Amino acid sequence: MTTNATPENGQLSGNVLFYSKPEPLSNDTHGKLGLRRIDRPFAFAAGAQAVPLTVTEFGLASLSYPVIFAGDRKQPLAVMGVAGDANMFLLPSGYFEVGIYVPAYIRRYPFVLANDDARQQLVVCIDRGAPMLGDLPDLPFFDPAGQPTEYTKNCIQFCNDYEAEIRRTESFVGLLTELDLFETRKTTYTPSLPDGTTGAPQEIAEYFAVSEERLKALPDDKIRALLDNGALNQIFAHLNSLAGWDKLIAIALARQNTAPPAANLN
Q: pTM for this one?
């Protein structure tokens, strides 16, 4: 990994949520830049209805959000809203509500690791479009000698650690897939009508979750292996988190006084 690599004939590829203009971090290009302390520091996540999670975050995230799996890769996600593209837990101040877990995917912004396809390696990038970037920064990226500052080194280490967690998460999802534990689930909402009756159920989201029946049907040695490698705790955190859908729906109804539209999480 490097902080001074520029792809020449290749392209950067990787996760793009929040990142409008990722650029390889370089003293030549970003020597005078850094992070400024701004109002509403997490405002970039205001439209995040769901954010990627790593498996080691399941325990803390499950206390705040439903933790689901989505898409062909069964990407773990923390669901933050059901009403349009709104993040229900971000305050107008640009901070998360007190006590709400902030996923590492959000905390690493504006840094990210991306694939340099030409060189077949990961490079450290920043989102040049991030609102907290600027000249005369409070936290410079580079010192006067052109070397990464301690702040930048810590951010790079955070990104490296996060990349390792991504690999661990992929292994976790692969294990659940191998054991055939995933099932498709739907979360629905049944509205109350003005005449006191109930309307037709409305679908909020369709996603993947661990099947409790399939989990219970596993042989004892498989259950023991899941317990020994810590996967069972993460599975239970995921399953317990699904009760959080009721909280999300209640928040959406309180804010809109209408049924929330369906979420596209697959």
A: 0.86
The Cα 17–Cα 84 span in angstroms is 17
DSSP character at residue 261: P
Contact assessment for residue 1 and residue 157, using Cβ atoms and an 8 Å cutoff: no
Phi/psi at 250 (nearest 5 deg)? -65, -40
Task: Check: CB of residue 86 under 8 Å from CB of residue 75.
Answer: no
Q: How many CB atoms lie under 10 A from the CB of residue 50? A: 25
Q: pLDDT per residue over 210-243, tens digit each?
A: 999 999 999 999 999 999 999 999 999 999 999 9
Burial 181-211, CB ≥16 within 10 A → b, else e = bbeebebebeeeeeeeeeeeeeebbbbbbbb
Q: Which residue is it, tokens 């596209």?
A: 264
Report which DSSP code applies to 263: P
**Cβ contact 139:148 at 8 Å:** no
With beta carbons less than 8 A apart as the criterion, state whether 42 and 102 touch: yes
Closest to 66 measured CA to CA, from 41, 38, 101: 101
